[in-house]
Request: fold
Amino acid sequence: GAVVSQHPSRVICKSGTSVKIECRSLDFQATTMFWYRQFPKQSLMLMATSNEGSKATYEQGVEKDKFLINHASLTLSTLTVTSAHPEDSSFYICSAQRGTSRTTDTQYFGPGTRLTVL
Amino acid sequence: QQPVQSPQAVILREGEDAVINCSSSKALYSVHWYRQKHGEAPVFLMILLKGGEQKGHEKISASFNEKKQQSSLYLTASQLSYSGTYFCGTEIKGNTPLVFGKGTRLSVIA
Reply:
């Protein structure tokens, strides 16, 4: 159990377009979902935390108008990169957990989405 | 504040042991260990909450020192399947975002 999927796995888009990435918990209800960005051979950088039915909480330095997050149901969260530019190219990973405790609830990660902006 | 992981990379032969460290200049609330294989999602290994705690099983275990500023991950009698990048994620306070270290790349060769 505890499988998280992401779609698409890879996407290439032109500069200025918007891209939507979906994160689904397949066999459990995810009260909380997280979105991370990972650069090559670098660590996971938390972008935002989303709780079902409420607005996402963004980390310092992350533009909320550029990275739109929607957590409309207990199994789906979406990240939309608006007006994408080459510097937005990265590996985006989501994770989901059943509860709201960051300490004791295990985060289950999706397989990631490789975004390339030309 | 990002924890410091060491070593950055290590190559082992099957059957050898490895220790990966995760250090912080401040006392931590918790340490979470993950393993990520190339192109795959990070997979949760374990969480440590108490100073002096040791947990895990015979092959993969971890400790959290008394001051709660360092955690070590122990890989015993390594197998090819242990290859991947190991990350520690830390909390300074309870229920706060995990801050991940830069990772330790472990390669196990036959």
Q: What stands out?
A: Chain B touches chain A at residues 2, 29-30, 32, 34, 39-44, 47, 49, 87, 89, 91, 94-103, 105 (CB under 8 Å). The radius of gyration of chain B is 13 Å. DSSP finds no helices and eleven strands in chain B. The CA atoms of residues 51 and 66 of chain B lie 4 Å apart.
